[in-house]
Amino acid sequence: MTEILRKNGIILALDVTDEKDAIEIVSKTAGCIDAVKIGYPLVLGTGLATVSKLAKFAPVIADFKVADIPNTDRLICEHVFKAGCSAIIVQGFTGPDSLAECVKIAKEYDRKVFVVSEMSHLGGDYFFTDSVSKEIASLAKKSGAFGIVAPATRPARVKELRAVIGNELKIISPGVGAQGGSAADTIKAGADWVIVGRSIYGAKDPRAEAEKVKKEIEGLIVD
């Protein structure tokens, strides 16, 4: 498998819907980002074939927040990995059997699974309360997942969830930029990578914006 991610880096959340735009943005930011995260907007607009084109520039993470019964989860994961994605983001609230199936398929394809422990938007902690988020993070650790998703908009939560999973799992944190999260604060709180979307892909110069975030991260001394 293509090596996915290096510690303390940037994941580009590419929520555009046009393939040409997507490829142009990723080609411009290649080398500044460690992976590109795509979701339903791009895939529904262009199809999964887009993955192989983007993967030429950076590893691709499928942010489908998979949340179904084990068999359906298996089918989704298989399609995603066959298309060339290096990792997939899934939900943990569906329970240990569904999550275990995602991890099982990922291992068969030598791919990675990230589990959503808490979302980054304003209402992200409405149902993902402290106890629920920690329980999901703990389940992710027990399942053998590669990492969790924790909110850059609430760095205190990142720190608390890091305490739950220890150093065995990785943390990727969305919400830097347009949602108000700080790359520096998030990394200092315990995240391994920050996820940045609109402030990069919507910028006049996406590469310059990515380099700005990269310098902010590289300026930190991380224990």
Q: Largest sheet, described in full?
A: 8 strands, parallel, barrel
The ordered H/E elements are EHEHHEHEHEHEHEHEHH
Count of individual beta strands: 8
**Form type:** globular
Query: Could you give the order of strands across the largest sheet?
Result: 1-2-3-4-5-6-7-8
Please indicate the percent range of residues in DSSP E strands (runs of 2 or more).
15-25%
- Put simply, the count of helices is 10
Structural class: alpha/beta
Show unreliable segments: none
Estimate the mean pLDDT confidence: 93
Intertermini distance = 28 Å
Q: Give the % helix.
A: 40-55%
Q: What is this structure, in a nutshell?
A:
By secondary structure, the chain is of the alpha/beta class. The protein is built from 10 helices and 8 strands.
Task: Characterise this structure.
This protein has 223 residues and is of the alpha/beta class. Helices cover 44% and strands 18% of the residues. It has ten helices and eight strands. The protein has helices spanning 19-29, 40-46, 50-54, 70-82, 96-108, 130-143, 155-165, 183-189, 198-201, 206-218, and strands at 9-13, 35-38, 60-66, 87-91, 112-116, 147-149, 170-176, 193-196. An eight-stranded parallel barrel has the order 1-2-3-4-5-6-7-8, surrounded by six helices. Helix 4 (70-82) runs parallel beside helix 5, helix 6 crosses helix 7 and helix 7 runs parallel beside helix 8 (183-189).
